[in-house]
Amino acid sequence: MPRFLSVTLFLWVFLLRWFQNAVKCEDIFQPDDDVNSTEQILLRQETQLGSVVDLLTQIRDLFNSNTINNTLITYPNVTENPPQELQCKTKFSPVNGVCLHVDFTIREEGLQQAGLSWTAASRYCTGLGADLAAFADANAYVDALNFIHRTNDGKDITMDIWIGGSDEANEGTWLWKNGNHMPRGTPFWGTQRHDNVFHQEPSGGGRQNCAMLWYKNKYFIHDSECEDKAAPLCQHE
Predict the structure, then answer these.
(1) Residue range of the domain that includes 10
(2) Claim to verify: residue 156 and residue 215 sit in the same structural domain
């Protein structure tokens, strides 16, 4: 029984017994014409006060006894396991449950232009024990964007970034490399202007089958030709 319930119970017992004793006192001290009324009142109060003292003493003794202590709930000494810190591989940084790494300097052998094709970027991530990034929801997408901005802080890098989405297997069906469907529409995919009209991405048709974070559109997702050059965003859990 919780402590506050025990206290409440005994207070009710105390009040009940006090009331019963008060009634008994009324029966014992009936008005007597031969006894001074003031003396009757004093005798009645003395008797009631004695009853109160007796009851309070009993309650105190009960609270100090093993009987009442054994009725109270004792809470086990539970030791919570602290959350384990995410162990990221070399070059990776922990970002809300996953490990991310972006490389703005890597380039394909023999080329001056920084960046890799989508296939080369995928191989690069695999070599690090990871894969091109995939976003389970909008929160993961925003976390990745914040990570990119922190990495790019003060460096004025304007590169696009490859992520692990493609519709090469089936045109129009965009899948992450793990086989899950990519989210579509806002807030993931950006817009592209064609013939003075803005179109929701992806809009490149059969020519553009790989997903990237496009710098010129604030790193919203765009479809692009898979041989374009961009920085790889790698992820592992």
Answers:
(1) 3-71
(2) yes
132 falls within a domain: yes
Residue 221, number of CB atoms within 10 A of its CB: 25
Whole-Å CA distances, 161 to 12, 47, 122, 180, 218: 72, 91, 12, 20, 11
Cα–Cα dist 124/55, whole Å: 82
What is the pTM for the complete model shown?
Answer: 0.64
Which residue in 184, 166, 78 sits closest to 121, CA to CA?
166
Paired with 181 in beta bridges are: 175
Per-residue pLDDT of 102-139, as tens digits, reads: 999 999 888 888 999 999 999 999 999 999 999 999 99
What's the Cα-to-Cα distance from 105 to each of 102, 112, 131, 162, rounded to whole Å? 9, 11, 18, 14
